[in-house]
Amino acid sequence: MSPNGMNPSDEDAKAPLVGEAVLQQGDPSGLKIFESAFFDALKTSGYDEGQIFAIRLAMEEAIANGFRHGNDGDPRKTVKITHVINTTDLQVSIEDEGTGFDPEAVPDPTEDANLEIPSGRGLMLMRAYMTEVNVIPPGNRIEMYFRRDA
Amino acid sequence: MNPESAGLRVSDQNGITRVEFIEQNILDEANIQQIGEALSEVVDAQDKPRLLISFRNVAHLSSAALGALITVSNRVKSKDGELHLSDINPNILEVFKITRLDRLFEIHDTTAEGLAAFA
Predict the structure, then answer these.
(1) pLDDT digits (tens, 9 = 90+) for B64-88
(2) Which domains are assigned to chain B?
(3) Closest residue in chain A to residue B61, using alpha carbons only
């Protein structure tokens, strides 16, 4: 019901898509189901292929870090994702059950001396592909923001 | 580790081992570990490994996949071998550039150029 006489379907199209998912370590099918719905929602909201590639990369890194580093691979622990998809921007929060980490202590993987080290690129990729990335102290929650016109 | 079960197609062409990813997405950590093991076995089986890895089918990868590739590269270097990458789509090539791994790896546009680049 629209109080201002707007067409309800127009209003629906502009409403943010809000969602939450709790993922379990070692449950790739749960992750796939979430991702498939999430990326479909982005597509429906008008995000193009390059934008979805960027968001997908950042999300994959954040979720993988949550499981691997945050939860230390403990299969009993979960990673919780909340998201708000607007046609203009996206907010995502990814939270693990770990004790957190200090983002300042992560060495720059693009330094010549670090290029041959196989790990440590997740956070820099999130920062490269999202408009804004904040590690919320104590470091077990990452908030990411993507603006489509950025 | 059977390369096929890790999602890899491995063949030999004039002394060069050609590796191709079968899957479109190299994201799942368990699968990446299998890929890493299968590639290590390929490298370990040769005195002086000569490896061309094609990304023709790959649409998405993660930093864990990059990590597996770096481990392979280090192993190949330690055996005085050669590793070349080819057929990387523009989105993924951007990932190599952002991480500056385009400096670590020798990347070629096509398989033919990759094959021609071996010493």
Answers:
(1) 999 999 999 999 999 999 999 999 9
(2) 3-114 (3.30.750.24)
(3) A57
